[in-house]
Amino acid sequence: MNLLLPARVAPRRRRLPAAWRSPLAVVGVVIAAAWVLVAILAPWITPHDPLAQQLPRLQAPSVEAIMGTDANGRDVFSRLLAGAQTTIPLALVLVVCALLIGTTVGAVAGYIGGWVDEVLMRITDMVMAFPTVILAMVIAAALGPSIMNAVIAGIIVAWPQYARITRSLVLSLRHQNYVIAGRLLGFSPLRSLRVDILPNVGGPVLVLAALDIGTAILLLSGLSFLGLGAQPPTPEWGAMISAAMQHIDAWWLGVFPGLAILTVVMAFNFIGDSLRDALDPLAARERPAEPAPATAAKEEAR
Prior knowledge:
- This protein is an all-alpha fold.
- It contains 11 helices and no strands.
């Protein structure tokens, strides 16, 4: 009778994809999560008021101020934490807005085609014809120096790349059999885009968005460094580096904000690379397959 009983199948353990178990992916996720947590908790964890001028001027790192003070007697560490609350959320807003605008434009252009495609793509080409940083500087200067105007300038220069990628993907998908079958079943163009096409476009677009977060942080910090972004006394990393240029001997004024920008950009680039590897089926096929537990045990026994 026991021979007729079904064999018990050992539960299969769920494991993260190999792309997310790489050292770079782990480092990127940990650093990015730490900075996001800092941005959320900044009002409660700053040791001093980031705007208060209550400490000695240009004091080197010490027990009282672990990252020193600036020319106005403000704690650099407190301003660094408060700067994360400004830079990181605005960079995320910039990327999300650019993604939504660019994906919508590219999907409409690729799916409808004809003169609509020509008009939208010529507008996209016109924006992409200008160097990104130069165009962002011109727009920010025309709108007026402020951090929100810098975000608007970043959105204007960032959306065309999403439009181009989305259009090319939609052009390759709209003639697939499942899309044609949906249209034959009476799907409207909007429903066909939403149900059949956009879910298959999401992977490459999300990879580009993850990589663009670091680019957005660099752009916002660069505009603030040039005086076209955050204005004093708002704590922002690029503005802090700009102020440090007036006091070259006080090395701590520029080093710590620069390290903050470096670590955040590096973390999101690592996440973007890992996300690309996880969503790319060709890359997954090229990776060597992991041996089964039983096979691995036999090899170890030998």
